[in-house]
Amino acid sequence: MFRVSNVPIDTDLLSKQLINSSAGAFVCFEGRVRNHNEGSEVASLEYEVYEGLAAKEALRIVEEAKEKFDILDVVGAHRQGHLEIGDIAVWIGVIASHRGPAFSACRYVIDEIKHRLPVWKKEHYKDKAPRWVSCHEGEGHEIR
Amino acid sequence: MFRVSNVPIDTDLLSKQLINSSAGAFVCFEGRVRNHNEGSEVASLEYEVYEGLAAKEALRIVEEAKEKFDILDVVGAHRQGHLEIGDIAVWIGVIASHRGPAFSACRYVIDEIKHRLPVWKKEHYKDKAPRWVSCHEGEGHEIR
Amino acid sequence: MKKLKELNVHYYAVLREMTGKSEEDIESFAATPGELYKDLAGKYGFPLNSRGIRVSINEEFQGMDATLCSGDCVVFITPVAGG
Amino acid sequence: MKKLKELNVHYYAVLREMTGKSEEDIESFAATPGELYKDLAGKYGFPLNSRGIRVSINEEFQGMDATLCSGDCVVFITPVAGG
């Protein structure tokens, strides 16, 4: 299950979908808006998502994770819209019998999401003009 | 911060101690009592903890993680007493600027805890006598 | 001979800001997304080099040399940010 | 000449079940945890081979050849399970 959300991500609600008495390990990743990026003070963020494609691609990533790792289930969500410092931008939860595959799968899903999902981030700064940034930090993928 | 708890682990309360506006990544691991182990159906578990030493050793592990990885903070808890299927036995949360160190540190802390903390686990089964088990699965560390 | 197609193009993020719109219907002779991109780059000042830019047709990733058909919904995906 | 020491020994898990107690005060001539372990193994039927068993003295891990002093709190740590 993966959803793109316009409202704050309810991590309790998502976690509740990962209850399974065969699960010995639950690993989750929460991406939060932090107050700095590459040396600049960040004031807030705006996420723009191409929802239809993002939802499809996220499900594909989840299926890949289930094939590659011995896990029971994956649940995730990604925010769109305007976010403040500390807000949750993305959440991935994985359950498995054992912790090794749970960690690996959670890492796999978030890494792929960052690279493949059609999600764009505009950073608003305290002291300069806003800017669209990409996840390929330092690779100079900016268009302007 | 690490605590040994006689009552159910309150993950919300622990998570709230990991709020920091520099944190872009939060990774947590939750070890839950699962209904099976090494082919046997588990009915419930009993955790026995040498509290004084466990608390000291856990703090040592947390400090090691902070030295080894570029993280902001670690919070953890371990249950003792009688646990049912689905109950949380151990919880580790880590925050960092970036997700790489957060994942690595969380994995490090739980691995070290499993090997070093003076915590014993007695498994009660559906169809045979209970047994003390060690984390060194398959290594035959049982005493009887 | 190239055929005129009716395409629905959506814009996100920096491309949305450059075009000043979220979507538009376009009549185009472009046979591929690559050709369409060049046309739009000329019209809106997109970067001429499309390296790092992917394309989606009808909510599926495709190559820049895929075949465009009338009625297709085309979205150019500039480098993404994710969480 | 070996000195008689007063030691406080705590038992957990399988050792607690084998001794039938959580702790006891012991007067012992054992100079090291290794020697003490052998005495207790004889008394309670602990496994004679102490490989894989660690020892804590006053809430710190120590070697089996550490020096025991009167008043020490000694705990033998059989293989652990963790979360």
Give me the CATH fold name of chain A.
Aldehyde Oxidoreductase, domain 3
Query: Could you name the CATH homologous superfamily of chain C?
Result: Beta-grasp domain
Query: Superfamily at the CATH H level of chain A?
Result: Molybdopterin biosynthesis MoaE subunit
Range of helix content of chain C: 10-25%
Specify the overall morphology of chain A.
Answer: elongated
**How far apart, in Å, are the first and last alpha carbons of chain A?**
35 Å
Number of self-contained structural domains of chain C: 1
Structure description:
The complex is a heterotetramer, with 2 copies of chain A (144 residues) and 2 copies of chain C (83 residues). Chain A is an alpha+beta fold and 144 residues long. Chain A has helices at residues 11-16, 51-68, 99-116; strands at residues 2-5, 25-32, 36-37, 40-49, 73-79, 81-84, 88-96, 119-125, 131-133. Chain A has one domain (2-133): Molybdopterin biosynthesis MoaE subunit (Aldehyde Oxidoreductase, domain 3, Alpha-Beta Complex), CATH 3.90.1170.40. Chain A contains 3 helices and 9 strands; from the N terminus they run βαβββαβββαββ. In chain A, the strands form 2 sheets. In chain A, strands 3, 4, 6, 8 and 9 form a 5-stranded antiparallel sheet that branches. In chain A, strands 1-5-7-2 form a 4-stranded mixed sheet. The longest helix of chain A is centred in the middle third of the chain and has 18 residues, at 51-68. Chain C has 83 residues and is an alpha+beta fold. Chain C has a single domain (5-77), classed as Beta-grasp domain (Ubiquitin-like (UB roll), Roll), CATH 3.10.20. Chain C has helices spanning 13-19, 33-44; strands at residues 5-10, 23-28, 54-57, 60-62, 73-77. In chain C, a hairpin with a 2-residue loop joins strand 3 and strand 4 (60-62). The chains are: A alpha+beta (144), C alpha+beta (83). At the A-B interface, strand 2 and helix 3 of A face strand 2 and helix 3 of B. Strand 2 (25-32) of chain A pairs antiparallel with strand 2 (25-32) of chain B.
